[in-house]
Amino acid sequence: MRTKAVAAAALLALALTGCGAEIAPSGDGAADASAHYPVTVKNCGAEVTFKEKPARAVTNDIGITELMFALGLEDRMAGYVMPDDKGRVEQVAWKDSYQRATWLSKDRITKEIALDARADLVFAGWHYGFDEGTGFTPQTLSGLGIGSYVLSESCRSGKGPERGVMSPLDALYTDLANLGEIFDVRDRADRLIADFKARIAAVPEPAHRPGVFLYDSGEDKPYTSGRFAAPEEIIAKAGGRNVMGDVADSWTTVGWESVVQRDPEVIVINDYGTPDAEAKRKFLKSFPPLAGVSAVRNDRIFVLDYADLVESPRNPAAITALADYLRTVPAR
Q: What InterPro entries does this protein map onto (predicted)?
């Protein structure tokens, strides 16, 4: 989501068809040869085939990187690209993986970074690295002999606007299963998926579903989540109701008038790091049009990390934490 790309589905299909996944990786192919390969997975509606286990994967952004770490695949990575969030990952389960893997850049991922890392696979997504505006696409990487895997949360279908092709949590489970096949660690992936599903299923059904507004950024107009981005299902599984769930889009801009009209009982801040959340809280509480909104009037503002609110292995913990908070909200 840190880069906000917009592209037609036809271009996506073309990019995936020639995504370069059939190019053998640059590692020791003989060492990785097994009866498991070649392996084919469906990614964003297209079948992609991997002849061997990738040996020098490059990931873009924190959630995508942690999907690899959660599967214990840091030894198959040439490195990761993400902003200067290193100080914010010291408490996560994968902090040791961050130390073992190479931080390639805090800036936007580029083909030069992929080439310098001798990548054989780039794992990124539309909104999360792939961007037709900059020319960094699976199609471009294919021309360089580099394979690609597209984050399922970011897949697009239909004409024109971006659309998710599956629910956000199904996207998480799909990517874990696909990565399990691609890297021949399907047992690990299956255990992780089962654990995540069990943790989410254990969240109690609420007596009351408070309306929740996801605030990402923006003062003139707020940037938020419609029904196709991960917060929609995170909020729902936590026992809330996304007040922008009727917006047929993923991450998108709306008007403050629509927020006031929907009168959310809780606002969830998408935190990109100190002092980001505190500055956003201060703005929300001092912005005159929101003064009468229930969440502001009752000071019900909850903070989740950026990596909690995009597809990542942090999603189950985020759902549990938000559920605990929402159960404190009384029915109107």
A: ABC_Transporter_SBP, ABC_transptr_periplasmic_BD
